[in-house]
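User: two proteins, same treatment. go.

Assistant:
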Amino acid sequence: MSGHGLAIFTQYGKLLALLVGTMLFMALVVSPFIIFVYLHCNPYPLVLRCLRESGLTAFLTTQAGVNSGFMIVQYAAASMVSENKVYAHPASVDSIPSSANQEDIVSMGTTAARKAKMILQNTQDVLADELLTACQAIDIRRRLNTHGQGLTPLHEAIYQHVRKEVAFYEVDREIWPDIRAVEKMIRSGELLDIVKEYIPDFE
C-alpha cells in the first residue's frame, strides 16, 4: 500500500472508530438515564397502588372495576425500558475475525448504530408514556378537588397542548392512538418550542 493510500486508510479508520465510539457511548449513557427516569418517575405507583395521599385513584381511572385504566401504558413503558437494557450491550464485544483473519477486530459499527437508534426511539416513547400519565393524573386531581392542582405556567401550557390532541381517559378505549399522538409531539420538537416560549435561553 502506498503512503497516500495508507494515510487515507488511517483517516478512514479514525473516522470509523469515532462513529462507533459515539454510538456505543450513546447506548451506554441513554439507557441508564431512561432506566433511572422510569424507576424514579414511572407510572408504577400511579397504576398499581391507590395513592389516596396524593389525590390519585388506582390505575388512574375514575371508574374502577370494569376499567383497566393506565395499566397498559405501564406495560408498554416497562417493556421498552427492559428492551433498552438489551440494546445497551456493546456490539463491539462480539467481534468475530473475518477475511481469512486479516480483519481480526471488526468494529460492528452498523450494528452499534442500529442499536443506538432503537434506544433513542424507545426512550422517546417512554417519555411520551410518562407525559400521558402525568396529564391523566393532573385531571384526576382536578376532578376530585381534594389536593393541590396548581401548575407552573410552562407545565400548564404543555398540559393544555397535550389535551388538544388527547382527551381524558374516562373509560377503557384503544389507547394506542393517544400514545402515538404524544410520541409525535416528543419527536417533532413542538414541546421544546413551548419550553422556549417560557424559557428563552433554554438549550
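Protein 2:
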Amino acid sequence: MPGKKPDLILQRQDVILFADHTTVVDLTQDVRSGVGIAGSAGSVHRIAYINAEKVFQDYKRTGEAVETFRAEEQKRQQELKTLRDRFKRGLISERTFQQESARLQQEMQRLDQELTAAIQGSMIKAIAEIAQAGRIDWVTQRKDVVLFANPAVVLDLTDLVIRKLNDTDQPIVSLALIEPGVDLLLEAGMERIRAKSLRQTGYLIALWESLLEPVGFTLNSPRDSQRRGSHISLGHPEGLRIDLALINDCGVLPDFRAPDNIRLGIAPLYTSYADIHAAAVRMRRIVDERLYERYPAEAPVVT
C-alpha cells in the first residue's frame, strides 16, 4: 500500500481517546483486497491504555452528577404524578397530559446529556494533558482492539488520570456557589464597575498626594487612568515592614512586591471610599509612629 505506513491498527475507531499528530485511515478495503501494509520504521511509539469505565466510576464528579440527576428525577416524578392525578380528575386533557409528560422526559434526557458531556470533557482534557506531558502517541480505552502496533511501549494511565481529575477538579457543588457572584457582576455591569474603579483609584492618588507623599511614599502606578487597573502601587524605603504592619496591626491587606511596592487593590463592588480613606490614614500613622520598626527588614517566606 504505497505511501501508507501505519504504526497502530485498531479494529474500532471509537476507542481512540487521544492521538498526537495522527491521521486515522480506514484500511478495511485494503485488507480485503490483499494489499500489503508497511509499518513505519525507526522510532518506538508510546501507546497508552485507559480503563475509561473505571475512570468514570472513580471520578468524584460522577457521584455528584448522579446525585444531581436523582434529585432532579425525583422532582420530575412528582410533577408527573401531579399531572396524572389532574388528568384522572379531568382537570387537563389527554393531549396536555401527553405533551407535559414528553416535556418532562426531554428535560431529564437533556440534563443527563449535559452532565455526561461535562464529565467526559474533563476526562478527555486530563487524558490529553497527561499524554502530551508524557509524549504519548495514542491513548485507547480498550486493549483488545489493538490488532497491530509497530514497536511500541504500552502504558496503563488509568490510575494517573483518576488522581489528576480528583486532585485538580472543582466539585460541581462548589462551582455552583460562583453563580451569585457572577449575577452581581452582571447586574452591576462592567462599564459601571470600571467607572467606579477609576474614581476610587483617583481618590486614592489624591490621598497619597495629601497624606502619604509628605512622609516618603512614591506613586508607582500611572497617573493616566487608561494605563492602570483597579489597584494603586505605592513605594517606600520601608515598604516591606510597612506592609507587615498594615497586615498585623491595622487590618489592611495589601500585596507587597520587591523592592518597595505596596499594592492596594480596590474591588469596586464592595470597597467603599471610607475603606480607602481608612487605609491611607493607617499608612500615615504607621510611618508617623514608626510602627514598622517592630518588624525585621528581612523578607519572610510569605508577605
